[in-house]
Amino acid sequence: MPELIPVLSKEEIETAVANLAKKISADYKNGELVLVGVLKGAFVFLADLFRHLTIEVKVDFVRLASYGMDRSSSGEVRLTKELEIDIQNKDVLIVEDIIDTGLSLTFLVDYLNSFKPRTVRICTMIDKRQRRETDIRIDYSAHVVDRGFLVGYGLDYAENYRNLPAVYDLKL
Ligand code: IMP
Ligand code: MG
Question: Would you say residue 23 lies in a domain?
Answer without folding.
Answer: yes
